[in-house]
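Not sure how to ask, but would you mind making up any protein sequence you like and the tokens describing how it folds?
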Amino acid sequence: MLEERVSRLEQELEDLRQRLNGDDEPDRLLALDDVAKWLGVSHRTVDRIIAAGDLKPIRTRGIRRFHPQTVDAYIRRRAESPYKRRRYVRR
């Protein structure tokens, strides 16, 4: 019983250390500028990608945010078909 308690306390201590170090950060939503930097394009190009339906944002109080997994999936989809150049229509 004492060993179980010690083990549980050690686990809780490790969890606290991870949180303090930022290792246990939940999936942070990315802003439009973050996505543009990640993709290496302008924010206008990201707007065009969204308008084409290739990337779906989450609206939070009118601000568009993106799950990192969504952006990563977009990159993977584009990498699978590198010869299909998609033209995004300018507004």
